[in-house]
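User: Fold this; tokens only.

Assistant: Input:
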Amino acid sequence: MHRRLLVVLVPLAVLLVAALGMPLSVTVAEREMQETYVDRLNDVGRFTSLAETALSTGRTEALQQELARYHELYGIPVAVIDTSGTVLLGPTGAYQEAARAEPALPRIVTAALAGARPEPSGEWAPWDDSALVVAEPVGRDSEVVGAVVTISDLSKTRHRILVRWAQLAGLGLLPLIALVAVAWPVSAWVLRPVRELDAASSRISQGDLTIRADAEAGPVELRRLAESFNTMMDAVENAVQRQRAFVSDASHQLRNPLTSLRLAVESLEPHLGVAGNGRQVYDVAVDEVKAMQRMLNSLQASARMESIRTASPVDLDAVLATRVDRWRALTATAGQTLAVNVPPGLRLLEPTGGLGSILDELISNALRLSDAQVVEVSARVVPGGVVAIAVRDDGQGIDASERAQALRRFWRSPRHQNVSGTGLGLAICADLVGAAGGELRLEEGLPRPDGSGHGFAAVVTLPVVPRVESSPDAPTPSPV
């Protein structure tokens, strides 16, 4: 998370440094160019004074030597030209060679011969390779007899500009490095409570209500948030524990009176007369007592299973290996056929209470309620990193409107009112699967043999758990 914070802060800091550094870089470059121009202007001014004297007296030998020595020392050709542009004094070859590479030279020379001091040529940008041309007229007004022209290579000036820019860039990097060095631990300190709160929320969403956030670290605001979060979780955990305790205690306390009631009802059987409807009333009373006992057993099982909220990885092969033989025996007893189509090697997150118990409930529903001939158990990995386990049958099935209600507690289809059950099995399974990060959904099953529609299907989707690489000698699971 603090990486994302730095991704936001560092570009902003870079933009700030660039906004300050760009104008400063331009100013530095212009100042270097200005210093070079002033130096060349001073040199040209001095040569112009010497040339005016030399041309008026005809003594040009000393000036010629001065111009040659200047070129030898600095590599800058300086020439004295007449009004026709012909070189009178200076290194003629070097000047003409440099002049051919400067398209701005004719304009500058023309302006100088007209008695004006033209603007210098030359770009200060380091990527430009043009030279600096400076010209000064010899003479005044209508008495201009020539001009002094210098063509200066700016490579050294541009190199100095690059060095200064590199220095500025280095200075600009210092605050960025300092920002990262300070922001990394500071952001980690600030965001550590947020990360811990996120981790605690994730654990709580998996059903562990005992997790609490650290309320001793981080800024004051986040500490207060963590304290509020912990207070909320205390209240939630207490409420859930009271609810579970009530269900468990009520079921347990009702068990003994209900057992006594059943014994009392059954003890009436010898006293029933042969004639009358007493036998029918007796049978109804016994069935109702048995249904109430099943209801209490389901409520107690629900309270026990929901009190254990830690999901764990499991191999589907291992779960099926302990269940398939029993399922085949049950289906064979009911005159049904069990088909298992599960690829080996699937590893997923097992809900609390056990994946096998959930599959047992789904198989039991198919045997008791569907009146099916074939029950199929299949599994496959679907996009999104989940495993879909489906229990399908070709029995009666239920329509879409009933499927929408079938996961509610105590709901039973009107067709199954005379079939043993409590209406809690699917609802409890759906809650346990949802607590493990999965989903239980009801769909159409296998096609019925008579072609009148489809049976019933319960599909459990659970997160895939990456398999840890085992040693070469480890046994591989065999397919069911």
